[in-house]
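User: Could you go from structure to sequence for me? I need the amino acid at each position, not a summary. Structure tokens:
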């Protein structure tokens, strides 16, 4: 296994080395003249243990402060003075701090913002202050002009303008929130005077919290007014970054705030009436836990601005397992109790799906979710290939999150000398990250190959074309090291890629045209889009020049600018490799422009219409604590419904449907009336009938009396194994839609079931059943029993052992399909499941026979669904296969499988499902390690507490170690080679090929497919997600409703929810359709703990 992993890593490195090797060169300070070093010295009174934010660092600002046409640099210092460096050309700078009267010795500076506060054409500086309550008023340095030596001279005037905020400020952003033309001010506050900032408590949402941010309105007369409460800035938060962005494209700036610790991040949506409203829950389904820096950028060139937030998750197994003790099972319960949105400790990349639609969080899919103690994310096209790359700074001088240190401090801190205690804290000095955008929603780590692989404690950062050579240089503020200036060497290539730079000249009150939007349009219909804002990343103010890489493209059709005042400019057929200046004075009105800028106003094909047809159903489910039964579960096992069954229930010739239910609730029957609307009623009224959880159901004619009877599969995970509440039920229809449970028609099974599929497998004229068993309660990943029931005149006989071969090796059944694979007139059985191969049982005359196929034998996956249809239009049936998707931490592939143990390590009657996956160790080598955390292992079995002396020891134990120690053996392991959703191509003669479904269908689990039509008119509706994720990893919720269709050439295409109207953002479990009396069809989608959706074609 190690050999395979090493070969994969070598192949990746070889490929990476071919892409702009050593793109950046770190210039020495004796060349650049930049000797800034944010030195922080601890003392007995002032150190990481007394002040947790001591190492949060400082920022960088880039702007032309002396108006000579070259960008200058400004660094903020904590224990050292801020410094200003003027650009002398050729990447050489001159320190002019004292001459500029910007010395700040004794003042703890954090964030910096650049603004022309007095509209005199000279850039000013606003500095956030922190730490010392007696000396931390924010400062405004107003540029008084350029002296005879070409040096700008500043004067501190924050008090005069009324913005000398006294909070513990981390940064600020200037924005025109009321569209009156001048710039207002948002100040980020982080006042930590709560007892413990990670403790759950009632949220403070009335503006009274000491950590509430501040908002100042520009009065237009050289003064600002504090309108914090009036403007709706009322949610507490330990703020670390503020990113202005027009998230809903209504031409009013919104504010994305990232907050540390328990406090949720905020998305203040501009209400266009002088107020904001925090609507983050409508846009982001979960957030980073210890959110740090953030950025807003259209990284996938679809015309919508995406978001990123950073956190602290380590990339290596050692870092992860020494800084995180456990997956906290009460987290979800406490979040609901206290009204907090879900938070998880990792970087998050939020893909914008369109105005007013929820974002998809795809950081794990994109490969950027684990960059350790991270600070500043910045999107920019550093290799000018047309795709925005991502640079991330990180590092921390003393890692107080180390669990061994935390235990040592708890046990011996009171008796240990302070110096000894401080020296026992680990150091996180690792290189910053550079990710190359591959153009397919994923990124490649090129930190080393591009030349950024230098260990550091880095914080704020900016990018800019400092030497005006057409490529982007990179500047970083470091703690206890000189600042980095990385020169981009792209322009020195023999044939460098093309670029365009745009300088916006705004109004006098807003000279950098903050809030403007720029679109580049190409002749092939592709676009690039940027929004002009300076507050980006962490504590920093970025370059006002907009940079666009063009790759080899030389033909640019159009540059369009939508200015903050609604006016419009365009530049036709611009030549590449130039900087263009576009002035608002030459702009004109062009009417209401949408998207970038026009189009996308198409009529959507589908609309959610449940209210129109009286379909009013909301699935409810009690919170079963699956993780208390088995601490090591990868996801909940009790949230699998609801299911849907469709048919004419009452014999009136109209299709009706039933929606399943969780335990303690009744399934609901919807009967269609002649007006195509529905009336509903509960299937059960008795309490005991509602104790069953309905996992699956089917309407079919059991007894050949020409009405539809109902089979209900019982399951879930709330009861012990063999509970009577796992007994399936068969309800016989009286012909009028009234059902009677006739227990004598079914064998006693008491198995935790999950699916039922009907077929006449023996060709005797009645319908038989396959009933799939899910997990054995308390023994995941072992499967409960599966059954093949033969219909004998309406009474079912268990013939499983007689005619169906054993499933082993197989994990847990999740779905099955009856299809005639070999065209012999008999339906064959195809089964999929978790930790299972795709398994086909051929229906022979005297029983079933397992199909032998080398392709299928190694097709182990975490399969969730299967659907038969002719995908390649060659006349035979292929199979759609829903899987977990790639938006996870597991690194699953045939070369690096996921393993799970079925052993009961301590013989206490409960399986201990240890999970192992490929992870990097501290040396960067890949190996197999436990996916779970040490405290969770010890909660599962005390044997694991006895096995290790420290978190560090635990972090070094690989899979081979567990085998040697007897915790694992080969016979107890199940595996998964695939997590991607696939389609199985039927090649004929029992030969198959596994093909991958498109990227957009890999963002989450696919739970069901629905095929409508055939041939070129065929559409496949796709739904998924899983809101029962483990607390640390969280829910998988990025998949939104999609439709696969075929164009006139027979080519396969995907329509996303944004373009189809098929909006399915919840935990969607099953999909079906119902015919209406009016000739239309409704697509029904059942969601766990959410409303039933009904879509109608428009």
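Assistant: Here is the amino acid at each position, in order:
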């Amino acid at each position: 296994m190690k050999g395979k992993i090493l070969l994969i890593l070598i192949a990746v490195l070889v490929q990476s080395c071919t892409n702009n090797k050593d793109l950046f060169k770190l210039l020495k300070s004796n060349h650049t003249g930049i000797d800034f070093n944010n030195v922080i010295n601890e003392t007995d009174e002032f150190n990481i243990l007394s002040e947790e934010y001591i190492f949060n660092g400082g920022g960088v600002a880039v702007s032309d402060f002396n108006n000579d046409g070259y960008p200058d640099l400004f660094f903020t210092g904590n224990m050292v003075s801020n410094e200003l460096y003027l650009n002398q050309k050729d990447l050489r700078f001159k320190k002019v701090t004292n001459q500029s009267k910007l010395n700040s010795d004794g003042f703890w500076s954090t964030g910096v913002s650049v603004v022309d506060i007095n509209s005199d054409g000279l850039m000013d500086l606003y500095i956030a202050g922190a730490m010392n309550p007696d000396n931390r008023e924010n400062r405004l340095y107003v540029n008084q002009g350029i002296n005879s030596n070409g040096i700008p001279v500043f004067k501190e005037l924050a008090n005069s303008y009324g913005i000398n905020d006294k909070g513990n400020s981390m940064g600020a952003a200037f924005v025109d929130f009321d569209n009156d033309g001048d710039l207002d001010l948002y100040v980020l506050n982080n006042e930590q005077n709560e007892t413990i900032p990670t403790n759950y408590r009632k949220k403070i949402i009335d503006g009274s919290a000491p950590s509430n941010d501040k908002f100042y309105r520009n009065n237009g007369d050289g003064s600002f007014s504090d309108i914090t409460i009036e403007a709706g800035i009322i949610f507490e938060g330990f703020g670390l970054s503020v990113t202005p962005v027009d998230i809903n494209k209504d031409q009013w700036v919104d504010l994305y705030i990232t907050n540390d610790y328990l406090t949720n991040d905020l998305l203040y949506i501009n209400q266009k009436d002088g107020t904001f409203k925090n609507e983050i829950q409508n846009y982001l389904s979960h957030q980073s836990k210890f959110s740090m820096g953030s950025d807003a950028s259209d990284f996938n060139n679809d015309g919508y601005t995406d978001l990123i937030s950073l956190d602290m998750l380590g990339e290596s197994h050692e870092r992860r397992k020494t800084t995180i003790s456990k997956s906290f099972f009460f987290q979800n319960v406490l979040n609901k109790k206290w009204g907090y949105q879900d938070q998880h400790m990792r970087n998050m990349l939020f893909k914008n799906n369109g105005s007013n639609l929820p974002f998809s969080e795809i950081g794990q899919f994109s490969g950027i979710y684990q960059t350790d103690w991270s600070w500043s994310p910045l999107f920019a096209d550093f290799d000018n290939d047309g795709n925005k790359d991502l640079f991330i700074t990180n590092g921390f001088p003393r890692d107080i999150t180390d669990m061994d240190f935390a235990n040592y401090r708890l046990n011996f801190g009171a008796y240990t000398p302070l110096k000894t205690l401080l020296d026992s804290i680990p150091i996180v000095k690792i290189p910053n990250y550079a990710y190359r955008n591959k153009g397919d929603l994923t990124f490649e780590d090129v930190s080393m190959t591009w030349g950024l692989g230098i260990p550091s404690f880095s914080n704020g950062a900016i990018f800019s074309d400092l030497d005006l050579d057409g490529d982007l240089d990179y500047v970083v503020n470091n703690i206890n090291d000189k600042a980095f200036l990385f020169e981009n060497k792209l322009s020195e290539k023999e044939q460098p890629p093309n670029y365009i730079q745009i300088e916006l000249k705004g109004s006098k009150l807003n000279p950098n045209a903050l809030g403007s939007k720029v679109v580049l349009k190409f002749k092939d219909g592709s676009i690039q889009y940027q929004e002009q804002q300076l507050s980006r990343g962490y504590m920093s103010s970025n370059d006002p020049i907009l940079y666009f890489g063009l790759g080899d493209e030389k033909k640019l059709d159009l540059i369009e600018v939508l200015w903050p005042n609604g006016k419009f400019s365009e530049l036709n057929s611009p030549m590449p490799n130039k900087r263009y200046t576009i002035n608002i004075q030459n702009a004109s009105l062009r009417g209401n422009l949408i998207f970038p800028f026009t189009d996308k106003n198409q009529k959507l094909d589908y609309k959610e219409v449940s209210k129109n047809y009286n379909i009013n159903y909301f699935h409810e489910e009690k919170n079963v604590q699956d993780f208390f039964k088995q601490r090591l579960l990868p996801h909940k096992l009790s949230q699998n419904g609801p299911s849907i069954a469709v048919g004419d229930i009452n014999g009136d010739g109209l299709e009706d449907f039933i929606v399943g239910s969780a335990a303690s609730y009744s399934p609901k029957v919807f009967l269609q009336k002649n007006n195509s609307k529905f009336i509903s009623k509960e299937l059960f009224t008795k309490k005991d009938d509602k104790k069953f959880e309905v996992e699956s159901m089917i309407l079919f004619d059991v007894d050949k009396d020409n009405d539809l009877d109902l089979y209900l599969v019982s399951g879930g995970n709330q009861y012990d194994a063999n509970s009577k509440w796992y007994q399936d039920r068969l309800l016989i229809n009286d012909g009028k839609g009234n059902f009677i449970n006739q227990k004598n028609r079914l064998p006693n099974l008491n198995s935790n079931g999950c699916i039922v599929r009907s077929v006449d497998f023996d060709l005797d004229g009645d319908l038989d059943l396959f009933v799939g068993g899910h997990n054995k309660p308390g023994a995941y990943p072992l499967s409960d029993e599966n059954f093949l029931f033969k219909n004998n005149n309406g009474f079912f006989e268990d013939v499983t052992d007689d005619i169906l071969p054993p499933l082993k090796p197989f994990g847990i059944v999740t779905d099955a399909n009856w299809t005639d694979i070999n065209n012999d007139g008999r339906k064959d059985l195809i089964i999929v499941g978790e930790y299972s191969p795709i398994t086909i049982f051929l229906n022979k005359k005297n029983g079933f026979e397992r199909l032998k196929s080398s392709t299928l034998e190694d097709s182990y996956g975490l399969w969730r669904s299967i659907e038969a249809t002719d995908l390649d239009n060659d006349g035979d049936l292929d199979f759609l296969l829903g899987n977990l998707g790639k938006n996870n931490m597991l690194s699953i592939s045939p070369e690096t499988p996921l393993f799970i143990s079925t052993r009961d390590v301590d013989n206490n009657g409960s399986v201990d499902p240890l999970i192992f996956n490929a992870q990097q160790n501290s040396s960067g080598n890949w190996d197999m390690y436990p996916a779970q955390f040490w405290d969770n292992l010890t909660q599962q079995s005390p044997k694991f507490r006895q096995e290790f002396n420290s978190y560090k020891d635990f972090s070094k134990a690989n899979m081979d170690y567990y085998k040697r120690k007897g915790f694992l053996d080969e016979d107890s392991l199940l595996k998964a080679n695939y997590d991607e959703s696939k389609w199985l191509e039927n090649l004929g003669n029992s030969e198959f090929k596994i093909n991958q479904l498109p990227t957009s269908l890999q963002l989450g689990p696919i739970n069901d497919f629905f095929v409508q039509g055939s041939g070129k008119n065929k559409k496949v509706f796709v739904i998924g997600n899983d809101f029962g994720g483990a607390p640390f990893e969280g829910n998988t919720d990025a998949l939104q409703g999609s439709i696969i269709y075929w164009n006139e050439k027979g080519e396969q295409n995907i329509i996303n929810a944004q373009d189809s109207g098929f909006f399915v953002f919840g935990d969607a479990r099953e999909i079906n359709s119902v015919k209406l009396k009016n000739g239309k069809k409704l697509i029904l989608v059942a969601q766990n703990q959410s409303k039933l959706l009904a879509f109608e074609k428009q």
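One structural detail worth keeping in mind: The longest helix spans residues 2-17.
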